[in-house]
Design a protein that fits this description.
Radius of gyration: 23 Å
Number of domains: 2
Distance between the termini: 24 Å
CATH topology of the largest domain: TIM Barrel
Bound molecules: pyridoxal-5'-phosphate
Strand content: 25-35%
CATH class of the largest domain: Alpha Beta
CATH superfamily of the largest domain: Alanine racemase
CATH architecture of the largest domain: Alpha-Beta Barrel
Structural class: alpha/beta
Mean pLDDT: 94
Number of strands: 23
Oligomer: single chain
Helix content: 25-40%
Amino acid sequence: MTTPIPSTPIHTTMNQFVAVGDELLVGGLPISQLAERVGQTPFYAYDRGLLHSRVTELRSALPDGVKLHYAMKANPMPAVVGFMAGLVDGIDVASAGELKVALDAGTDPHEISFAGPGKRSSELHQAVAAGVLINIESFREVSILAGISLKLGLPARVAVRVNPDFELKGSGMKMGGGPKQFGVDAELVPELLAKIGEYKLAFEGFHLFAGSQNLKAESICEAQQKSYELALVLSRHAPSPVSFLNLGGGFGIPYFPGEKRLDLVPIRQNLEQLANRARQDFPDASLVIELGRYLVGEAGIYVSRIVDRKISRGQTFLVVDGGLNHHLSASGNFGQVIRKNYPVAIGNRMNTKSTETATVVGPLCTPLDLLADRMTLAVAKPDDLVVVFQSGAYGASASPHRFLGHPEVIEVLI
Ligand SMILES: *Cc1c(COP(=O)(O)O)cnc(C)c1O
């Protein structure tokens, strides 16, 4: 190969991966070699270097004193959680299963918080015994935690997850405002706080999470400000000083043509102002933001191999060995209203000049099993590798693996 290095960014806005010659590089390895190393397709590959640089960039864009948590539901692969645990200030878990992974990763229990609308009492037991912070989401949880605290002789560490009286504008998925199963409605929180005081739980603060996948900095800033104001009002009813104020996250990543990266400059300014105010209003508190997708989404790819190439009434289909059973999000069936193509490329033909319009489908017997709908791709043959980018979050763990009985996907951290 005589291809010059430095290599070509694969996309003007999604330039985190590069190609050398025809081969996409992942963690420094040409993709064909990586596929041999993994030993099978399909697989997910997550790039340590990209995870590391994302956290470093974000930290330098955040004001001092704002803590960064990783919401591990975005990517719960134990190796990823272990790696992230060394980079962030805390891990947010949403089940006892995730709690185990976070603890196994060596995370300090003091820096783990547990949220979720249906925590079983067995999960609450485990969380109190582990000494993690529990984000209370109902009155029921207060009574159960009181019983557990007595039994274990350990006061439960709690924060109140508030369902705010506003929404995160422009969010891909709204998780606060209006009637919601998440958190306790802001207007009921004073009563809840009184109950927490009465039962002598160890109250630490508030958690507000308005929504997910937002690319508009102004909306995120507005939600953070409103969350802060709301926490300030509610704190007057708190049984003890606030030491933890989680303002949520919702930072999005670009998936589709025309989407621009989130501008961190206004977010930094906004958080700086809030951190300054917090020094007065909540002198004992740390401000926290919790991010999943933003930290891991762009560091991962999903790789499948072309099994067949078919022309049906003039349309070219590339049939690959993986699909919605491993990557529901890329198929458009995980929360999207209108299906759009994730960025896709033929990973071993990155600089091939001849292109065609092709549709990439998986092996499942359903028309929903679609990875790319009439995209311009390098002309590809069976055994070539199809890469879906922006696949580090809500991929493997958010997909129906058993559907149709194909082999499980493998995940590697490289
Ligand atoms: C899902 C979730 C997150 C992570 O959301 P992302 O969009 O992946 O950043 C954070 N906090 C809570 C409470 C969540 O439910």
